[in-house]
Amino acid sequence: MSHQRPALIVALVALTATSVACRNPNTEEARQEFRTAILEDRVDSVRKWLDAGMSPNEEATEDCATPLAVAALRGNEAIVELLASYGAELNAAAGPSGRTALGCVAAAEDNSDMVSALLQLGAEANQPEQDGRTPLMHAATGGFVQTVRVLLEARADVHARTTAGTTAVDLAAAANQTEVVALLVRAGARLAQAAKPADEVPAGPSLMSIVTPLGNITLGQLWDDLRPLLDTGSLIDTAHPSPTRAVETRRINGTMYKLTFDRDGKTGPYRLQRIDVE
């Protein structure tokens, strides 16, 4: 009896494989089983359905619901690579908004490994959605530092704008993602207010941060929030060269700094745009 059990198991596995291969992949039941296999990370079952003719490019009625996007959000690189090898369109919309699988991952979590995998397979770093948002903009908004780094290495455009005219650094600053703001500024991004000709930022190199006894003063932070850190140094001067700009000169740890703050709109708060050593 014990010699019959392995043979029975082999027969059942073979029967299951045959049943998948012989079934019509165009039925709703088959498509549901395919989706379930992806959700349960069953690579072999996904491969069998693809071999049986299941399309890896099933249209989604909601965002991030295509097979590729679901697998990517689950962090399953094996299934993502498998779907790509069977013709999954890496830059196709993963739902009504036009967001791609890469955009879905960039918006959801700081999974730089999956972002790297998608980019290596051929995903476009600058593919925009219907409203112009790019994967970099999503990662910047979420404060996903490692994802932002990977996207910048893949030449993600820091100057790309949404249909409303907002850039990745604007979104990061609005979400108070100071580390991301510093990364983007280092990559050449400029906050919206600084782009105005009437408020031109001084030319030349600028610091990313200042170390104080109470913490770091970093680009993108609000003037009011920085007050305790600024007060660790002595105030030299405060000036308002324009309605949307303020400049504060401070001596901190023996060094003279000029800190330039730009206003968010006409009545919004002031954010640190530039740090210069005087």
Compact overview of the structure:
With 278 residues, the chain is of the alpha+beta class.
SSE order and pairing:
Blueprint: H1 4-22, H2 28-39, H3 43-51, H4 67-73, H5 77-85, H6 101-108, H7 112-121, H8 135-142, H9 145-153, H10 168-174, H11 178-186, E1 209-212, E2 215-218, H12 223-230, E3 234-242, E4 245-252, E5 255-263, E6 270-277
Antiparallel strand pairs: 1-2, 3-4, 4-5, 5-6
**If helices are DSSP runs of H or I spanning 4 or more residues, what is the number of helices?**
12
CATH level 3 topology of the largest domain: Serine Threonine Protein Phosphatase 5, Tetratricopeptide repeat
| CATH architectural designation of the largest domain | Alpha Horseshoe
> What number of domains?
2
The separation of the N and C termini measures 89 Å
Spans of at least 5 consecutive residues whose pLDDT stays below 50 are 8-18, 193-199
Radius of gyration: 26 Å
Share of residues in strands = 15-25%
CATH superfamily of the largest domain: Ankyrin repeat-containing domain
